[in-house]
Amino acid sequence: MITVGCCGYPVRQKLYQEKFSVIEINSTFYNIPKETIAEKWQKEAPINFEFIIKASQFITHPANSPTYRRSGRLSGNLKNYGYFQDTPEVFGAMEKTLKFSRYLNCQKILLQTPTSFIPNYDNLKNLYNFFRKFKKLYYHWWQKFIFLLEVRGSQWTNQLRQKISDDLGVVPAIDPTVTAPLKCSFNYFRLHGKYSGGRIIYEHKFSETELKKVLELCQKPINYVMFNNTNRWQDCQKFLELISG
User: Fold this and answer.
1) Overall domain count for the chain
2) DSSP per residue, the chain
3) What is the Cα–Cα distance from 13 to 36, expressed in whole angstroms?
4) Which domain holds residue 184?
C-alpha cells in the first residue's frame, strides 16, 4: 500500500481532502492550536482521513532558531528549549503536542531536528533520555502513538539512523532521494526538493524519472510518500498517476 500526501495544505482543506487521504500538519510545529481546533478539523474531514502531526519545535529546536519568529513570546528559560533536553519546557511541549493529537485522533507524530542537531555525545544522550523517559512516564500515551523521527544533516549515517530506530522504537522519516530506506515497520518518505550546495531547493519540480525512482523504493507493505516542496500539490497528483498507471 502506498499513501501519498502533502506536508501542509497547498490548497483549501476541502479540495485537498477530496483528492488525498492523509495530510501532515506543519502549523503545529510553530504553535499548538486549541483543542477545539482539532475537534473541528476532525469533524470536517472525511471518514478515515488521516492526520499526521509535526511536533512542537520547542522539543527539537533551540530558541535561537529563526523558526521561533512564528511562535511568539516564550516563557521560562530560553536555554531550556529544544534539543530533546530534560526540561519542563521540552516535556511540556511534548504533552501539548500529544493532547492535541489525541483530540485530532492522530496516531503518528513527526519530530524533525534542525541541521545543528548533530550526532555528538550530548545530543545523542538527550535524544535517548527523552524517548526513554517519556516511555517510562507516559507509557499509556506511548502505546497509542507511532513516533516518526527525521534527523537532518550529512553526519547522520544510515547505520546510526537504524540503531536509533531499533533502540528507541521510532520510525525513521527520510528523504529517499538522498537516504536509502531502512529496516522498519513501514516507509515514511518526505520529499523536500532538490539538494544543491548543501541546501535544499524547495522550488524544485520533480520529474517523472525522479518520481519513478521513488516509487521503486516503496517496497514495504505500507509506504507513505509525503511531498514538502513548493510544487507539492502538482507533484502529489503526478505521483498518484504513476501508482495508478
Assistant:
1) 1
2) -EEEEEES-SS-HHHHHHH-SEEEE-GGGT-PPPHHHHHHHHHHSPTT-EEEEEPPHHHHS-TTSGGGGGS----S-GGGSSTT-SSHHHHHHHHHHHHHHHHTT--EEEEE--TT--S-HHHHHHHHHHHHHHHHH-HHHHTT-EEEEE--STTS-HHHHHHHHHHHT-EEEE-TTTS---SSSSEEEEE--EEETTEEETT----HHHHHHHHHT--SSSEEEEE-STTHHHHHHHHHHHHH-
3) 17
4) 2-244
Check which CATH number belongs to the domain holding 164 and give it.
3.20.20.410
Kindly provide the b/e burial profile for residues 91-110, where b requires at least 16 CB atoms within 10 angstroms of the residue's own CB: bbbbbbbbebbebbebebbb
What does the pLDDT profile of the chain (245 residues) look like in tens digits? 999 999 999 999 999 999 999 999 999 999 999 999 999 999 999 999 999 999 999 999 999 988 888 887 788 789 999 999 999 999 999 999 999 999 999 999 999 999 999 999 999 999 999 999 988 887 777 788 999 999 998 899 999 999 999 999 999 999 999 999 999 999 999 999 998 887 888 999 999 999 999 999 999 999 999 999 999 999 999 999 999 87
Contacts of 245 (CB under 8 A, 6+ apart): none
At 9, list the grid cell.
495544505
pTM for the full model? 0.94
What cell numbers appear for 144 in the block? Answer: 497509542
